[in-house]
Structures are given as structure tokens and as C-alpha cells.
Amino acid sequence: MEILQLIYDEIIGFLGISQAWEILNTGNYSALKTYDGMVALIRPILPLLLLLEFTLGLIYKKPQIKVYKVNFLIYIFNRFIGRFIAIAMVVWIIGWLQPFALFQTKMTWYWFVYGYIVWEFGHFLYHYWGHKVRLFWCLHSTHHAPEDMNLTVTHAHFFLEAPYADAIRTTVCILLGVSPTMLFIIMFIDGTYGSFIHVGENILKDGRLGFLNKFILTPSHHRVHHAKNPLYMDTNFCNLLNIWDKVFGTYQEEVKEVKVEYGITREMDSGNFFDVYFGEIVALVKDVIKAPGIKNKILYIFMPPGWSHTGDHQTAKIARNNFLGKEFKTSKLRFHS
């Protein structure tokens, strides 16, 4: 019976309906006017969309079973391994660094806008380094391994990535004066939207969201980010506000003539949990072992993926520059970067 109760609790927890169910049972609808009440209403939306997306996949005969299977295994694995690490990291950093904050924000709309821009800067840094530092790519590559896009991809993460990401984002926010209360509100909004932008074509065929595509980061932008096409590689690192991608030159719109191809460039079995979860770590260890000298071994750890001590580099930057150079000579396509 304990096992059944555990399974039941996990299902309810995944669907995020426990708080909403409690409100319905008690009839205390005034709770919906509070922050916790709003969270209780919003949280179940994405899990329910995931179920709808999977159902539509079965109807359209595009269920992406391989992706769903591996991402489900990753979700279960991470639940047991890294359940509380990320939140503990956030709380510890807040307590440690808040005394060193330059100033302290208040809960006003203009400070909230400031806080969100600061959060996006922290998110950009974590995400950029996750693609440009081989060690961090080992943590982040699990998220890019799926060869299709759907809402389960938001659960495909190496268990140490959340602590690493939250350490950077929280440090930036706290030192630049974002109050802990505001930080947790921003984290909820950004986490919810960050899950939504993984929505697949079974639910949202065109991910551009109309005119919003010009002002915020949409599912279309994030599909570009998950692509292994040379044009799209290492672009669109932000989550909601694309301000920092435009500032640092990593912004890229989806181009109709360049169909998104999901996944990573390393040859892998995307239906194999161990290859998806540990494959990049294994590849890095092999490169470090084979590398001549201590310097090269260290460089393999911290240089971008594709770097080689032989000078035959195959990094995303080189691949993208080569593609752009060839296409500008042979095509009239307009590439926004």
C-alpha cells in the first residue's frame, strides 16, 4: 500500500493539482486571490498540456515515443537523485550573499522589471557557459539530446544542472539587489514560461505567437535554440526577454528555408537513457585521457565542445561561421543574428 501511495503522490505532484484540489474541497475560493492561490491554478496547466500533446501525437500518429520514454526515465531518475539540491543551493546563496548586495529592491512594478532583466542576464550567463564550456555542456547536453520537441523535454536535465544554473542566476540577482521575495516570484514565472516554450508542433504548429515574436522569446526561438543546424547552433540563450541575446549578438529567428533539426551533433542513440544522460561525460573523459600533457587535458575540460588539441576544431562557432560564409555567397536568404 505504501508503494501505491507513493505512486499516487508522485502523480499528483507531477500534475501539480494538490493545492487546487484542496481549494476545491474546502470551498475557500478567496485563496485564489493570493499568490499561492494563483500558483495553484497556473501550475497544473503545463502538465495537462503535456498529456494533451501526447494524446494528439497518438491521434496524428506522431507520438515521439522514443523521446517520451527517455525523458520520462530522466524525470524519474532526477526525482530520486536531485530532488532538493537546487532549492537548497538557492537558499544557501541568498543567506551568504545578501549582506553584500549593492542595494535592495522593493516590490514595485519598476523594480520588478529591473529584477526580471537582471534574472535574464543571470540566465543568459548560465546558459551561454553551458554551451561554451565543455564541462558545463556535459550537464546541459542531456537537455538537447531529444530529436523532437515536446513538453517532456523540459524535464530532460542532468541532475546537477539545476544547482549549477541556480547558483549563477541567484548570485547575479542577489548581488544586484533583487530581493528574495521578488526572486522567488520571478523564478516561478520564468520556470513556467520556460517549460511552455518547449511545446511541440502537435499543439502549436507555428511557434512564433504572432506579433509577440518581435518582442519576447517564443517557442519558435527556442526550437531554433534546440536545433543542430549550423545556422541555429548556440543562439537564443534567453528565456522570456530576448534583450541579452540581442545585446551579445546571439539572437536568431527561425528561417522558413532552414527546417529545424533537433538533437546534438555527436553520434548517439537518443533512445538510450545512459547515452543521453552520461554520453557527453564519457566522451569528455576519453578526450582527457588521450590528450597529451596536463595543459591539453585541462583545456578539453574548459574549452568549447568541439575544441581539439590538434587544431582541427569543430566548434559550433566555426560551423556557424562557415555556414553563413557559404550561404551569403550562394543564397539571398536573410539570416537574422
From TrEMBL:
The Fatty acid hydroxylase domain, residue ranges: 112-250
GO molecular function, a single term: glyceryl-ether monooxygenase activity
Residues annotated as transmembrane: 40-60, 72-97, 109-129, 167-189
Domain of life: Bacteria
Gene Ontology CC, one term: membrane
Single GO BP term: membrane lipid metabolic process
Pfam family, one: FA_hydroxylase
Annotated membrane topology: Multi-pass membrane protein
UniProt name for this protein: Fatty acid hydroxylase domain-containing protein
Species, as recorded: Arenibacter certesii
